[in-house]
Amino acid sequence: MDLFEKLKLNRGPLGSYAKEVHGYFTFPKLEGEIGPRMFFQGKERLNWSLNNYIGLANHPEVRKADADAAANFGMAYPMGARMMSGNSNYHEQLERELADFEKKEDAILMNFGYQGIMSAIDALVDRHDVIVYDSESHACIIDGVRLHMGKRFVYPHNDIKNLETQLERATKLVAETNGAILVITEGVFGMSGDQGKLAEIVELKKKFHFRLLVDDAHGFGTMGKTGAGVSELQNCMDGVDIYFGTFAKSMASIGAFIASDAQVIEYLRYNTRSQIFAKALPMPLVIGALKRLELLRTQPELKDNLWKIVHALQSKLREAGFNLGKTESPVTPVFLNGSIPEAANLIYDLRENFNIFCSMVVYPVVPKGVIMLRLIPTSVHTLEDVEYTINAFNAISGKLRAGEYERAMEKVL
User: Fold this and answer.
1) What's the whole-model pTM score?
2) What is the pLDDT of residues 63-80, one digit of tens each?
3) Do 407 and 304 fall within a single domain?
């Protein structure tokens, strides 16, 4: 079969709906300055769908740092991969400051979070090694694990007893292959919002020999006393051997980093293919990240205000009878019962009649018959935003239970 003909016949599980949903349910265009209120299809909406956790996207000091760096350096500098011609004092300064923030010996910058974690996994292990990972790990981890040429064992989400079973299997196997064991989990799971059981995993090091890689994309900047992440919150920073954070969430930018022992970072610096063969992060992003990290350290009120909004939103949703699952983070999933057509009509009503924009998650990400509305509170939301949203959610859940969205499905699809 011709390749293009095959793609035409099989557009993928999401692509098969592209003509009906593109531009509204998928690939929507939010316009205006990033914040709690943005424009969608010409109307202002209360926006709960951006990972601008501590409000740095439009912080005046951040905007100035970004603008000044762009004016001074342009977007091209430094030109080339870091190993060849793309290194700078600013890149190295950012790495030192990130390592210090995470209480590690060194750090390495990554161009993107998704690409970074994938290629780091690929670099860290070989065919003799075994990976053991949480079943609800992000797609970037799953794709990284797929690159692994050796054995990989998965344990049910946060099931420490089963993890112990998988470690027993892995320990027997590496005794034969003379390999090593890498355990991978997340600090905050981005869909459910619950935390990885990092302290309990670290405790297993007393019984098994392994290294622990934690993807803390949603925890970096939001969790722990200083914002250093879930391992700080759970008091087990020393037990996390390889810490991964991204700039795309609390820092509202582009890029990522890994912090670890100096010898591990040196190894990654010389063996991570996606960084060796890719252009370095542009200078405005690096200088902008330095400013963002400075604000994380010096303005704790940003994180404090985030948690004020998180506590208000989540407590009031629970008081109203909504199921938020097991979230222990700013990620706020609201679980409802309904079909995919009902979910489409509900979101349409929420956006068009209540002017609220939030993300909708349906099967296969969640089980059939489940609708998940995913809200991301930020420090720049207000308590008035919370009250309005609670009232709107009460209204749509009543309509859902009454069957109004089922009867109206032909209006949207």
Assistant:
1) 0.94
2) 999 999 999 999 999 999
3) yes
